[in-house]
């Protein structure tokens, strides 16, 4: 049996990961702010509550898999991996630098804890299906979690994969959609309307849950509920806010692929209410190492 | 001359290997009857996944299976395998160097009646361009069988092109293919024809024609286009001084250009490329199309005579 979720502790972790993301991106001077922050609570719930995984044994065959199909949110995954102990948080300062283990988009070959390479949108769910088929063939207890972006579902391959998951009755898959409403060029509704989203996934044979993607209790409940659904895959559509957690970034598509400036970072630290003293990592990150 | 279908051999070999290796899984995109993965599907339905007419999804799914330790074979026609799903192959299979074997059938102009939409004449070029990708075109059924055995032993992505048409059998029963090694199938000193696929048998016939004229022509089966056997090419250039390449593929980006690059860097020699001359194909029988696009023994022989004059 899984231990009950400590909601307050999870909220603290989410704050920590948001902080890590902003520090990383500011240091790297490039990367995707908005979509990393909107996924922070979901990623926290997965790594610090739901997933079976072992940072000491990243290739453990019975682990749950995580596919970050919206690979541009890599910083939030890196922060989670570092905080779980897959590698030292010091590595976070090397994001996107030449020779780093933390590539601009996830790379399973060089980053402990990354299960698959992503970055080109629309491909993650197909790979998640392949994993789910293999794990089922081998009768492993593992589940596969995939996080998709909302702009991403404009890719046709997502719907090919959606058909396949349902066709093969992959109830060991739980996909989540970070529905923050924005893509690079603007609001999703303006660029290419993807609604009605819930009806689409249902029509493709999925069990669909709609939640507030920043309400930790709702996230936990949805992840637990998904595990009880048999015979079909589950899609959790999580309504989120792009740039969630820091007001200067919230709801602004302009920060899709723009890192925080020094000034914005300072404001973020104040707003997140974490002092540099209270966060050992900040010392590491803010010093010019 | 005995004929044997490379795709038929593929299907049968896959089914044989499936019995020995439980980690082999097979995917197809609604063409399992044509690609012959149906033979495997009948024997091992639990390890066969028909992905429907969705090549991109098939490649991604194969990648996911491979990431969990499976040896995933993904098959469809060469044009769809290489073209429709190119970026999925690049991102999801080749970049992570996953153990996916893309065995593409219906390569080349000999697809025939279906016409240009179905004739893959660029697949080798675009697969070769991807890092980590091994690219193989067997020359007959004997080699196809050995290729399938060998790529299962190799851990990494491979693209193998087989054909719709049946090819003449030219290799001995005990032939053993090695990834990255070309084979001299007929020795000679006046010029060398480096070929793959169906063109190897045409090259042998060309050598026979030229033999009657007193020319002694070496024929090399270069079934692995990548990694290419540089030593064998350089040696052929040194020892014969004139090179002709022959492939059932565009002269752009395929075997011809791979050989040209080696020659330019290792031992420049006069050369000529036999292949499809940067044009689309059309409907017709294989027997009509091959002479139409100048892929016959006679065409190879003409090219050899021409390069020899430039020695």
The low-pLDDT segments of chain A are: none
Largest inter-chain contact set: A-B, 34 and 30 residues
How many domains of chain B? 2
Low-pLDDT sequence parts of chain B: none
What proportion of the residues of chain B is helical, as a percent range?
Answer: 40-55%
Structural class label of chain B: alpha/beta
- What is the number of beta strands of chain A? 7
- What is the C-alpha radius of gyration of chain A, as a whole number of Å? 18 Å
| Chain oligomer state | heterodimer
Counting DSSP H or I runs of 4 or more residues, the number of helices of chain B is 13
CATH structural class of the largest domain in chain B: Alpha Beta
Record field, number of beta strands of chain B: 14
- Spatial order of the strands in the main sheet of chain B? 3-2-4-5-7-6-12
What is the CATH topology descriptor of the largest domain in chain B?
Answer: Rossmann fold
Strand content of chain B: 15-25%
User: What gross morphology of chain A would you assign?
Assistant: globular
Please state the second-level CATH architecture of the largest domain in chain B. 3-Layer(aba) Sandwich
């Amino acid at each position: 049996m899984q231990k009950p979720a400590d909601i307050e502790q999870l909220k603290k972790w989410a704050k920590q990961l948001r902080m890590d993301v902003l520090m990383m991106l500011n240091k790297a001077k490039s990367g995707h702010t908005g979509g990393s922050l909107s996924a922070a609570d979901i990623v926290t719930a997965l790594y610090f509550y739901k997933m079976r995984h072992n940072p000491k044994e990243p290739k453990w065959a019975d682990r749950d898999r995580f596919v970050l199909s919206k690979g541009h949110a890599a910083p939030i995954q890196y922060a989670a991996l570092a905080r779980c102990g897959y590698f030292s948080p010091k590595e976070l300062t090397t994001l996107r630098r030449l020779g780093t283990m933390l590539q601009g988009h996830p790379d399973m070959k060089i980053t402990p804890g990354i299960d698959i390479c992503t970055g080109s949108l629309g491909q993650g769910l197909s790979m998640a299906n392949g994993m789910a088929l293999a794990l089922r063939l081998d009768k492993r207890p593992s589940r596969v979690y995939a996080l998709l972006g909302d702009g991403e579902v404009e890719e046709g391959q997502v719907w090919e994969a959606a058909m396949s998951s349902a066709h093969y009755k992959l109830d060991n898959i739980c996909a989540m959609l970070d529905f923050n409403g924005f893509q690079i060029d603007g609001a999703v509704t303006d660029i290419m309307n993807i609604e009605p989203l819930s009806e689409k996934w249902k029509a493709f044979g999925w069990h669909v849950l709609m939640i507030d993607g920043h309400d930790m209790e709702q996230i936990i409940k949805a992840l637990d509920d998904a595990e009880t659904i048999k015979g079909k895959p589950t899609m959790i559509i999580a309504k989120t806010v792009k740039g969630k957690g820091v007001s200067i970034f919230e709801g602004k598509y302009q920060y899709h692929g723009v890192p925080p400036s020094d000034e914005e970072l300072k404001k973020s630290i104040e707003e997140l209410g974490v002092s540099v003293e209270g966060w050992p990592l900040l010392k590491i990150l803010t010093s010019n190492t | 001359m005995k004929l044997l279908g490379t795709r038929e051999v593929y299907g049968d070999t896959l089914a044989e290997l499936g019995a020995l290796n439980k980690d082999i899984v097979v995917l197809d995109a609604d063409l399992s009857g044509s690609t012959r993965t149906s033979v495997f599907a009948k024997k091992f339905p639990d390890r066969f996944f028909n992905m429907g007419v969705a090549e991109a999804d098939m490649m991604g799914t194969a990648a996911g299976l491979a990431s969990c330790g499976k040896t995933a074979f993904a098959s469809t026609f060469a044009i769809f395998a290489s073209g429709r799903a190119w970026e999925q192959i690049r991102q999801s299979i080749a970049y992570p160097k996953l153990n996916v074997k893309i065995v593409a059938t219906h390569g080349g102009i000999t697809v025939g009646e279906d016409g240009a939409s179905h004739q893959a004449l660029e697949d080798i070029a675009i697969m070769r361009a991807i890092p980590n990708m091994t690219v193989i075109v067997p020359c007959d059924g004997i080699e196809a069988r050995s290729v399938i055995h060998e790529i299962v032993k190799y851990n990494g992505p491979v693209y193998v092109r087989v054909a719709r048409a049946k090819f003449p059998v030219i290799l001995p029963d005990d032939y053993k293919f090695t990834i990255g090694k070309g084979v001299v199938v007929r020795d000679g000193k006046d010029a060398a024809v480096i070929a793959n696929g169906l063109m190897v048998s045409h090259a042998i016939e060309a050598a026979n024609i030229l033999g009657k004229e007193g020319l002694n022509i070496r024929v090399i089966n270069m079934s692995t286009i990548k990694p290419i056997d540089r030593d064998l090419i350089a040696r052929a250039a040194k020892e014969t001084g004139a090179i002709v390449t022959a492939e059932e593929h565009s002269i752009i980006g395929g075997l011809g250009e791979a050989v040209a690059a080696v020659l330019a860097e290792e031992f420049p020699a006069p050369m000529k490329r036999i292949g499809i001359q940067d044009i689309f194909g059309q409907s017709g029988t294989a027997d009509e199309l091959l002479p139409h696009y100048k892929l016959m023994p006679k065409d190879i022989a003409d090219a050899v005579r021409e390069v020899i004059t430039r020695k």
